[in-house]
Amino acid sequence: MKRNITLFLMIALACLPYLQAQVKHNTVIEPLKNERWWGGLVALGHQMPYSDKLSMQDMARNNLNNQVVPLMLSSEGRYIWSEHPFRFEVKDGRLLIYSDYEELTPVVAGKTLKEAYLAASAKHFPPSGKIPEESFFSLPQYNTWIELMYNQNQADIMDYAHKAVANGFPQGVFMIDDNWQRYYGNFDFKSEKFPDPRAMTDELHRMGFKVMLWVSPYVSADSPEFRLLEQKGYLLKEKGTNRTAIIHWWNGYSACYDVTNPEAVTYLKGQLRENQAKYGIDGFKFDGGDVGYMNGEYAYYEKDANANRFMEKWAEVGLDFPYNELRAAWKLGGQALVQRLGDKDYSWRATQLLIPDMAAAGLMGYAYTCPDMVGGGQFGAFLNVNTFDEELIVRSCQVHAMMPMMQFSVAPWRILSKENTAICAKFARLHRQMGGYILEQAKLASQTGEPILRNMEYAYPHQGFIDCKDQFMLGDRYLVAPMVTSGTSRTVMLPKGRWKDDEGKTFKGPKTMTINVPLDRLPYFEKLK
Q1: Which residues are registered as beta bridge partners of 189?
Q2: pLDDT tens track for 230-254
Q3: CB 141, CB 370: distance < 8 Å
Q4: What are the b/e assignments for 16-31, b being 16+ CB within 10 Å?
């Protein structure tokens, strides 16, 4: 009998780690009166605040092409935070949380969305006191992706830059996108596409641009870099083996730096700095590393690391380069990292997503966010388009103009009439004109954690703005109400107070009104003291 009991205990102890791993913590959060929730995935911003129903979202499996933060925020001042990924859904107005690590319950921080956010920020992702390079906020950005896609080359890049200047667009940050390098993991330019890359960057600098390059953590297999990095032990491995893992990502199959390995990260940063010194590069766009590509059975250098931790460590590489841009991140709110919304289609619907998704980014701690690219960054949407909807492109440009950052990719001067190109240039200059105020708000965010672009409910709680997704506050001074549909009129909701619009007219709120918005107008309202 004793032998049987001993055997049973031995089996139970052996199974304990497995049983513990299977434990799930499920929490049903009953809503308070009028309570709604934001959070989790920036890409779901247009669905926030969540209504009575939301399908299951798994932070450990999919980042939906954008940033993920283990944070939920309530319009009634509650928040939920975890250091680990969790799953969540909404059923009949109830928020359901599923965690493999811990029981998650709401923290009461006040009675408003703003109070919930500021409490969560202060405790879990406090502002670092630093901002990315100032020119991100005061000047437009230009990215070569939509114009050149995988045909990045010196001649067309210079043609793009010269035409931007010739058409009255201010010089700013210039990003050379994917496929400039000889192959992944190598940081030299393709000689057949770039006969003199240093002369190219020198000329871009003389013109007034800062130059950034697209990079990823991937390494082409069967290359000298692959063999060296494999020998050093700097690449991800298949779990339970000593074989280098091959990752299937959007542009093929590649090995991958293990960025949970500090030595690998130090080596990678050294390679990037050599590139900067050789070619005069100011910084890098850090792409890839998404949770969805890292969900295989991989052995990480860092014990207990997972796909989310990998995404976090890849994003942290950007902290050493003040000119940086990211599209995917795990946590890291409050850090001096430029985030960008995931690639949007060329469509009115995609234009309508920009405001709520940008508001969601701010509420997740990413104050320094760029609203994708003017007209959209999803290259497939631009293929085989013979006649562009010029109104859509102009309105998209206007949406960007008074956001923390704005970025062009498709060339307005190529697809628009001369008159509409001039309108886009006008609003690029408006962004430069607002740059001082935007920079002031960025510096404030680095101290307080407050978003630069603010959700209307955040700024004016419990005043009927909870579902307002087509206007926003830039800091606490400007209410911006762009056109996000075809047409020349829209409704604007003004909060309490006195307001002066872009045409010099004054209004007293609260007030809901319909205004005329010709194609060359971006309506905005300055709050008067």
Answers
A1: 181
A2: 999 999 999 999 999 999 999 999 9
A3: yes
A4: eeeeeeeeeeebebeb
